[in-house]
Amino acid sequence: MSERTYDVVVWGASGFTGRLVVEYMHRVYGSAGEVRWAVAGRSEQKLKEVLQEVVGSVDIPMVIAESHDEASLRRLVEQSKVVCTTVGPYAKYGSLLVKLCAETGTHYVDLTGEVHWMRKMIDQHHVEAEKSGARIVHTCGFDCIPSDLGVFFLQQAMLEKHGVYSPRVKFRVAKTSGGVSGGTIDSAMNMMEEAKVDPSILTLMSDPYALNPLNMPRGEDGKDQTSVVFDEDFQQWTTPFVMAGVNTRVVRRSHSLMGYPWGSNFRYDETVLVGDGPGGFVKAWLTTAATGLLVAFTAFTWTRKLLVRLAPSPGEGPSEEAIRNGFFNIKLFAAHPDDSERNMVAIVTGDRDPGYGATSKMIAESAVCLAKDDLDTPTGVLTPSVAMGQKLIDRLQQNAGMAFTLQ
Q: pLDDT for 90-129, tens place per residue?
């Protein structure tokens, strides 16, 4: 990559998550340190207000652009090694940016959970990004870094300790505390509106291998869990995990891009642990019913309108206290292929609200990793583990309040 003015440009810095990214970048990397970074958005005045409020000055460089104006976006991407974008719904506002990054060899990170849009970006830009040297990396937040890097970490540990990979990995949400922003709800609403016009989107979203390379081997995984199931390995009742439909597809894409090292029959799933005994059983059914109701609210036009009225607006999110006091604790189980006594469990933890406090740190470190670390990894439309792997894990543990440990 030719010399660029900036290492990282934060696109959407005046939005809810964008502000958190700006705060983190300034706190960890300063305004005149080893990482040359800038903020970008449509309004210079709004960017100045954010910098004054979050940083205490307007010393951070600003880049002004419009999300649908190709000339201004091209100027933005050509100035930076990495574009870190928090502007969603990405299906509405991200396609042109991905296109330009793929063309110019500019690395890219986002927070999308829109599977249908990721499939579109893969089909349209993977080959071009491979040729230009760009790494286009979706899902660099709570969706899907704990999943994607957690599986990568546990598989490497299994290989180092036992000399084999696991053919079966489970991801279990043990504990979590956090809120929801208006931007997340807006993205979900937009995805369902698009599906109403194009029913093939729902078909794609139900495909366990929706993000795998076309005409490549598929595995044995079926649809995501939709009911209450008792997990024998954790000895707890489990309920569906709302983000499994995104995370599992990303992990399976990682496996395919790596060349299927975990075996052609590798299986992976994600659920939520809710407890054991009769109490856990009742809680599991109540939680499943609540999750089903939320999904139902996104399925119909009139319920979507009601949800929009009740939910935070785009640009709004959890309080500072909720973000600060939030956390997550994830457990991953890997089955040894031959000896159950050699099964392994990894724990992935993070401080702050997972959807925003932790996510803003994850995407920021992903951007810095792509910009500053010497990566011997492929190019194209990738996943966090394929693009950055252990080097991103190291950064997240060193700077971002995350831990990857073995139980």
A: 999 999 999 999 999 999 999 999 999 999 999 999 999 9
Tell me, what DSSP letter sits at residue 337?
S
Distance CA 398, CA 402 (A): 8
Whole-number Å distance between alpha carbons of 20 and 17: 5
CA–CA distances in Å: residue 91 to residues 2, 31, 57, 111, 188: 29, 32, 33, 12, 11
Which residues partner with 38 through β-bridges? 9
User: Do the Cβ atoms of 175 and 327 come closer than 8 Å?
Assistant: yes
> Cα separation of 260 and 263, whole Å?
6
pLDDT tens digits, one per residue of 319-353:
889 999 999 999 999 999 999 999 999 999 999 99
Per-residue exposure over 64-93, b if at least 16 CB sit within 10 Å of its own CB, e if not: ebebeeeeebbebbbbbbbbbbbbbbbbbb
Strands 168-177, 327-335: pairing is antiparallel
**Separation of alpha carbons 88 and 177, rounded Å:** 23
Q: Note if the pTM is more than 0.90.
A: yes
